[in-house]
Write a structure and sequence with these properties.
Blueprint: E1 8-13, H1 19-29, E2 34-39, H2 59-68, E3 73-75, H3 79-82, H4 102-105, H5 109-124, E4 128-132, H6 136-148, E5 154-158, H7 178-183, H8 186-199, H9 205-215, E6 219-227, E7 245-253, E8 256-263
Parallel strand pairs: 1-2, 1-4, 2-3, 4-5
Antiparallel strand pairs: 6-7, 7-8
The structure holds pantoate.
Residues 12-14, 42, 45, 113, 116-117, 135, 138 line the site of pantoate (PAF).
């Protein structure tokens, strides 16, 4: 356990750092005198059929990027340090933040995320922690955990970092073939068009968006409109909640699963 005596902002990551991660490090600088990054590809948040073994791990390149960015420290534990033999505890967040989106397709995912983030918070003892809005449900679940369990950590959210064509940066984008990469921006374009339709009160906007994503060649997991604070289902008159709604999508292109979201 660390004792710092000064404010520390933690940026938890699974490595394969890209410009989006580096923007999180920059933002972290505004929330702590010291910035610590963690790199840990957390087995507990991958289901047995998911891509744990092929998740990219360019560790030396990651370290070089962190050094170049002036990050003060890196915490990169081994799996056996995080989950030694006999490990059998965990953190489970319930409630609307954890209902009906990612959890329908990855039922054990957030249990793994909250468990590892709780451990990282205890190990690094940050005063703030920065997470990207691309994983919007993850942010909501982590806020719930911090509020419910009284972690003395300020959760800071950072806007999604995008390619010029709108594709959200993700460590998994490297798995896209050139053809899939050309299709991938449809997700963000559809989100933007759907958001416009919702604002205009068009009832068919979501259905149209779902069809467009499928017609582009994705296997759609969900495209849903949610209350951006609780992630619960919005009330009947969605247009009245403008500013307080979020559109979230997850879809697969081949074996690569992409997620994204926009404010409405
Ligand atoms: O967002 C991620 O990269 C991971 O879910 C996190 C927060 C580092 C926990 O493993």
């Amino acid at each position: 356990m660390a004792t710092w005596g000064e404010s520390v902002a933690l940026v938890p990551t699974m490595g394969a750092l890209h410009a989006g991660h580096m923007a999180l490090m920059d933002l972290a600088r505004q929330h702590g005198r010291r910035v610590i990054a963690s790199i840990f590809v957390n087995p507990a948040q991958f289901a047995a059929h998911e891509d744990l073994s092929k998740y990219p791990r360019p560790f030396s390149a990651d370290v070089a990027k962190l050094e170049a960015a002036g990050v003060d420290g890196l915490f990169a534990p081994e799996p056996a340090t995080m989950y030694p033999p006999g490990f059998c505890s965990g953190v489970q967040v319930a409630g609307p933040a954890n209902v009906g989106l990612e959890d329908r397709f990855r039922p054990t995912h957030f249990y793994g995320v909250t468990t590892v983030v709780a451990k990282l918070f205890h190990q690094v003892q940050p005063t703030a922690a920065v997470f990207g809005e691309k994983d919007f449900q993850q942010l909501a679940v982590l806020r719930q955990m911090v509020d419910d369990l009284d972690f003395p950590v300020k959760i800071v959210n950072a806007p999604t970092y995008r390619e010029a064509d709108g594709l959200a940066l993700s460590s998994r984008n490297v798995f896209l073939t050139p053809d899939q990469r050309a299709i991938a921006p449809v997700l963000h374009q559809t989100l933007q068009d759907c958001a416009k339709a919702v604002r205009a009160g068009e009832t068919q906007g979501l259905a149209r968006g779902r069809s467009r994503i499928e017609e582009a060649g994705f296997l759609l997991d969900y495209l849903e409109l949610r209350d951006s604070r609780t992630l619960g289902e919005p009330g009947q008159d969605a247009t009245r909640e403008a500013g307080g709604l979020r559109l979230l999508v997850a879809a697969k292109l081949g074996t690569t699963r992409l997620i994204d979201n926009v404010a409405v």
